[in-house]
Amino acid sequence: MTRLTADNLDGFFPKIHYLDGYLEETTGLGLRALACEAAGVAEADIDFDALSVAVVPVTSGKGVIRGFSETVAETIRSLGIDTVVTDACDVAGVAEAVSHGFDIVLMADDDRFIAVDRKRGVFSDNVWSTARGYVTALRLAAGGSLEGMTVLIIGAGRVGGTASTMLLEEGARVEVVDIRREKTERLARNVPGIVPRFDLAAAISENLLILNASPGKISGRNVREGAIISSPGVPYAFDGEGEAKAKKIIHDILGLGVAVMVVSAANPRDSHIREEIKLG
Q: What fold does the segment set 129-250 form as a domain?
């Protein structure tokens, strides 16, 4: 998972309350409905009012990101779920969450960000959830189906790799490009059916449907007029020219992935562990 910084989160906190309307405008569904669609569960099948979630700050590795836990908690509250940030960190924070009986516990270190359903003993992973959320958003923004359509994935890391399998399952023709040729080649070996591309500018300019899972900037001169772009990449990748030429750009720093992760963990009809594709 890309490690966010406090600078990434600056200014995002108040935007959480506008995310619902933004997603409805770009995909036709608000945050909660979109998360349920991505997780494969009917909104009515989850009692959001009865759920409780604890977010546990984790200090290992590079340490706690200022504002991260509070932003995650506020995102989950916007779904109508009672959510707290634990007073304690790390193992003590998990103990606090369990002793107080919270249904779902979220925690993140430098490598993993998961939501654990404490009662069922299953978890969902933010990489899977982010990929699932943005693939679903792209499908909805493109009219409801990706069958037979070509989608370019920018970035052959964990989110891009996980999204590639999801898009193939949606019936899309999947192209992948990464600025590191060896990552593109490795993903092509691991995921049969994808088409590797090695010229980033040409790949972008030739495609109308793009899932951007890269932290790199994308020059507007390469964006095709009328493109629909689903972009979980951090930081925001697009300049004014790209924004003007694209029909839709779906992007937020944290909210959609977190929402899908929590809904997936809470899905009463699904005990599947939601993890990302292994690229080794």
A: Rossmann fold (3.40.50)
